[in-house]
Amino acid sequence: MRAQFVMSEIGVGLRRNLTMTFAVIISVALSLALFGGSLLMRDQVSAMKGFWYDKVNVTVYLCTKSDAIDAAAVPAGSPADGSAAASGSGRPCSKGAVTPEQKTGIEAELKKMRLVQTVMYESSDDAYMHYKERFGHTALASVVTPDQMPDSFRVKLTDPEKYEVITSAFTGRDGVQSVADQSQELDNLFALLSTLNWAALGIMLVMLIVALLLIVNTVRVSAFSRRRETGIMRLVGASGFYIQVPFIMEAAVAGLIGAGLACGMLGAGQYFVIDHGIGLREKLELINFIGWDAVLAKLPLVLVIGLLMPSLAAFVALRKYLKV
């Protein structure tokens, strides 16, 4: 098979169906850009989970004197009292502020648990200082006093997703006001990101179907417009594969160009949106954005799919529509 003949046939086919070839290139580029973006979004969510869950703490808040007063002010038999009694835990802090013995026992029990990595005690004065640092500019900060801030234990877990163990062990315990877990707030964020990722995958599938239909239609038109040439080639003894190669290569070239454009879109997004231009990496320092290594790792896959997908679609279309 002469390579020069094959290349000339590819050029003729692309020129004859220039408009449809351009549509194929754009469709492949958009679908593969969405595909690559979905893969990068998945890596971004995984990186954010690893970054944030590693910093998530379970906080055990201890009872204060004001909590005990508030608990005593709830009349017996009231809805609040009834709901607490129904849960079997009683009213939080109903037995008064946490005692030194209770505080020591809670800390010792936390440190014995295999799930617990570190335990850090934060006094009410420390909590008040941290509150003033974060919310000192608000009107509420002027009326908050240190005695209103509870002592607490900041617990870092070896597996943050098992925070329910700490919650069930210490909720309703004497001296414990409440148990708060920060990962509950993060779960909502990650659920939203996962939904957006699935939406991008859905759009990508629609664009991919459109691209495949365009490829099949382009191959059909190209084969029909060159039916005399292919008929002559068959008469002189050319094999079916020899006749099909130029059509398959046309689709492969168009797909490869589209894949190259998709790679350019992904690289441009990383450069202009994340690193420079908009510069989300600098503006949103709390988010651990993925780097160029993740982007470059996806580009070969995008190129391979851009090359193989149109080639296979053209091969299947030719078996049905190439009549010589």
Structure description:
By secondary structure, this protein is an alpha+beta fold. The chain has twelve helices and four strands, in the order H-H-E-H-H-H-E-H-E-H-E-H-H-H-H-H. It has helices spanning 3-16, 18-53, 65-72, 79-87, 100-112, 124-135, 164-170, 183-225, 227-235, 240-275, 280-283, 292-321; strands at residues 57-62, 116-122, 152-157, 176-181. Helix 8 (183-225) packs antiparallel against helix 10.
List the defining traits of the structure above.
alpha+beta, 4-stranded antiparallel beta sheet, 4 strands, elongated
Give the helices and strands, then pairings.
Layout: H1 3-16, H2 18-53, E1 57-62, H3 65-72, H4 79-87, H5 100-112, E2 116-122, H6 124-135, E3 152-157, H7 164-170, E4 176-181, H8 183-225, H9 227-235, H10 240-275, H11 280-283, H12 292-321
Antiparallel strand pairs: 1-3, 1-4, 2-3
Helix pairs in contact: 1-10, 2-8, 2-10, 2-12, 8-10, 8-12, 10-12
Low-confidence stretches: 76-89
Radius of gyration, in Å, reads: 32 Å
Q: N- to C-terminal separation?
A: 19 Å
Number of strands: 4
- Kindly report the average pLDDT value: 77
Strand content: 5-15%
Please tell me what the overall shape is.
Answer: elongated
How would you classify the helix and strand content by structural class?
alpha+beta
Spatial strand order of the main sheet: 2-3-1-4
Number of helices: 12
Helix content: 55-70%
